[in-house]
Amino acid sequence: MNNFSYQTSESFNFGGMSNQSYNKAKVVIFPVPYDSTTYYKSGTKDGPRAIIDASRHMELYDIELKKSIKETDIFTLESLEPSKNLPKENIIRIRDVINRLLEDKKIPLMLGGEHSISTGAVLAFKNKGFNFSVLQIDAHSDLRDEFQGTKYHHGCVMRRVRNLISSVTQVGVRSMSQEEAEYVESKKINNIFYYPDLPIDKIVPTLKENVYVTFDLDALDSSIMPSVGTPEPGGIQWQEALNLLQMVAKERKIIGADVVELCPIPGFIAPDFLAAKLIHKIIGYILK
Predict the structure, then answer these.
(1) How many domains are contained in the chain?
(2) Which of 67, 107, 120, 238 could, after both became Cys, cross-link 91 (CB 3.0–4.6 A)?
(3) Is the dihedral of CA 117, 260, 18, 26 positive or negative?
(4) Burial 5-20, CB ≥16 within 10 A → b, else e
(5) 3-state DSSP call for residue 112?
(6) Is residue 2 domain-resident?
(7) The domain containing residue 26 runs over which residues?
(8) Residue at 1 is within a domain
(9) Distance between alpha carbon 276 and the CA centroid of its chain, in Å?
(10) Is the pTM value of this prediction over 0.70?
(11) Judging by DSSP bridges, how do beta strands 253-260 and 210-216 pair with one another?
C-alpha cells in the first residue's frame, strides 16, 4: 500500500484499542504531523501524537449517543512522513492516501498538523467525483491567495478549497486580513458566519447532502483551547460546537473530516484531551 502502512501498535491506536482492523473499519484515522514555522507558536507537528496519547485515557462510551466506539469501527494509520520540500508536495501525498481510502470505501478522519493539509483531502474527494460541501469551523478565514511565497500556506487553505469546489461554508470566523475582506466583498461571498453569529438553522441549509468537515481548533474559545498556533480571543464553546456537528450529521452525511492545529503545551493536557474527545464525538456522529 503506497504512502502508508497498517498500524497495529496499541500505543499509537486512537482509543488505545489494539485489535483495530483496516478491512472492517468504517472510519480511518490518518495522522499528518505536518508543521510550518509561520505560526505565532510552532509545534502543530506534535498534535496528532498528543491527541492519540490522550485518547488512550478516554472512555469510549458516548453518553449522548448511548453507545461505544468498537474496535471494528475505526482503524489508525501510521503517521504520514511530511515532505521537507515544497508545501505542495505534502498536499499531493495526502491526496494519494485519501484516494486510496476512498477506493476502499473508508471515511477518512485526518489529525493535523497544520491546516494546509485539508487541501489534499478536498482534492481527493473532488477527483473521486463526490458532489459535496466543505464546512470549515475556524477562527480565521484562511482566504489569502498567497502568503510567504506559497499558495499552500495554512493561511491560504480555504482559498485553495474555494478554487476546487463551489460549496464552502465558513463558521466561527473572527479574524481576517484586509486582502481577505476585499476578496470576500469582490466575490460576494455570503456563506461566512462570523463569530458570535452561529445560527445552526441557517448554516445547515447552505450545505449539500455530502459534507467534508474541517475543524481548526482555534475556532474554540481560547479559554478552553489555548493550545493552538495562532489563538484568537473569544470563540465557540464546547457545547456550541457539538450542537452544530450533531445537526450537520443529522441533516446531512459527513463523508470525511479533519481536526487540525493542536499545538500541545508541555505539561498542560486538558486541551489534548478536549481534541481527542472532539474526534470521538465526530466519529460517533458519523457512525450514528
Answers:
(1) 1
(2) 120
(3) negative
(4) eebeeeebbbbbbeeb
(5) strand
(6) no
(7) 10-286
(8) no
(9) 12
(10) yes
(11) parallel
